[in-house]
Design brief:
Length: 234
């Protein structure tokens, strides 16, 4: 809530609500929220916490989007969320984290994006580190270690990105995925990955940002919640 207060004023066009108890559905939410110029706020599976309600009442967003299926964020939360917007409350949720990621990209980005990022869906660190560097201009899509799920492949086919960047080392995303990714772009497939999540995040920063930036956010690499909420602040 405090991160949202530090960046967003009342009347934002959109707010994304994601479960604070699981990372998977919200991993691709950072780029979408950044593009939509709205925050990601965290909720419980069956209730909106008081602090989140306070921030929603302050923001009074044009619309609200729930991230994930009803097992992650219940219908009760979706109904309650309608009290905080004069617009729609919709849900982007697939049968699994990979389809949710693909659906969110499809709802946010037009074909022929400059770049698409591929991150493991088995952990949160690499996808979250990429959130601020996309500038709301590129999706982060989830893959398995050794394969590109069908939903992700279909979205890459629709997007036809100019290039693709693999996030993380080969222990997170194997060479099979890097090779297969070449089928979905006419450009290069490159990798940004360090020895661990901390080095990968540092390499992503070095690849994207020049020296003397005005602000740097530091978040724990041991959990996802803080970095998730900070992703749209980039």
């Amino acid at each position: 809530m405090l991160l949202s207060q530090s960046r967003f004023v009342a009347g934002v066009p959109i707010v994304y609500l994601a479960s604070g108890l699981g990372f998977a559905d919200a991993l691709s939410g950072g780029p979408a929220a950044d593009k939509g110029d709205g925050p990601i706020l965290l909720v419980q599976p069956n209730a909106i916490p008081a602090s989140t309600k306070t921030e929603l009442a302050r923001l009074r967003p044009g619309r609200i989007v729930i991230l994930g299926g009803t097992a992650a964020v219940s219908t009760a939360v979706q109904i309650d969320a309608a009290n905080y917007t004069s617009g729609t409350v919709t849900r982007v949720g697939g049968v699994d984290r990979y389809e949710t990621s693909a659906l969110l990209s499809a709802n946010t980005f037009e074909p022929n994006v400059e770049v698409a990022y591929l991150a493991t869906g088995a952990n949160f660190a690499d996808a979250l580190a990429a959130g601020p560097i996309t500038g709301g201009m590129a999706p982060v899509l989830l893959v398995k270690k050794d394969s590109i799920p069908t939903a992700t492949a279909l979205e890459l086919t629709r997007l036809r990105p100019e290039r693709i960047v693999i996030l993380g080392g080969s222990a997170a995303i194997g060479p099979e995925v890097a090779a297969a990714a070449g089928n979905y772009t006419a450009g290069a497939v490159t990798r940004i990955g360090g020895a661990d999540r901390f080095e990968t995040a540092a390499l992503l920063s070095a690849d994207h940002f020049a020296r003397d930036v005005s602000l740097v956010y530091l978040a724990t690499g041991a959990n996802y919640a803080d970095a998730l909420a900070a992703a749209p602040l980039g």
